[in-house]
Each structure stands twice: as structure tokens, then as C-alpha cells.
Design a protein that fits this description.
Elements: H1 14-27, H2 31-55, H3 64-73
Helix pairs in contact: 1-2
Protein name: CopG family transcriptional regulator
Organism: Methylobacter tundripaludum (strain ATCC BAA-1195 / DSM 17260 / SV96)
Length: 77
């Protein structure tokens, strides 16, 4: 672990902790490395989602009723 690392206490459900320990052993990584990578992936997905929302912010929206009418009009319902 680098000297820039921060230490935190995290409480896992027993099943999740067991799965993390197994993944750690199988991948020859520390539990911290496995958790850090999982969090890094989740944060990247969040960033991608936010970017997609921003890109589509100007698009028009349909109400649920309008969506149903459109689906019916195109033979989908």
C-alpha cells in the first residue's frame, strides 16, 4: 500500500466479506486492492451515467401516456 493511502473501517455483510476474501485469494490481490478496484469501476460507471444524462438533457421527453400511445401507434402494444 502506498504511503498516500487512507485507512477506513468498513463493515461488510458476512457473505460479501467471504466472497471478497475468496476473490482476493484467487486473484492474488489484497482485499484492499479488490475493494478499491470495485469502487473505482462503480465510480467510473457513475461518471459515464452522469455524462449520458448531460448529453441527453436537451432531448424532449414523453409522458408515460404518450409513450403508450406511441407504442400502440407503431403496433408494439
Amino acid at each position: 500500500m502506498s504511503e498516500l493511502s487512507k485507512r477506513s473501517t468498513v463493515y461488510f455483510e458476512p457473505e460479501i466479506h467471504q466472497a471478497l476474501k475468496i476473490k482476493s485469494a484467487i486473484t492474488h490481490q489484497s482485499l484492499s486492492q479488490v475493494v478499491n478496484e470495485a469502487i473505482r469501476i462503480a465510480l467510473q460507471e457513475d461518471r459515464e451515467d452522469l455524462s449520458a444524462f448531460e448529453e441527453r438533457a436537451g432531448e424532449s421527453t414523453l409522458s408515460y401516456e404518450e409513450l403508450l400511445e406511441d407504442l400502440k401507434a407503431h403496433g408494439k402494444l
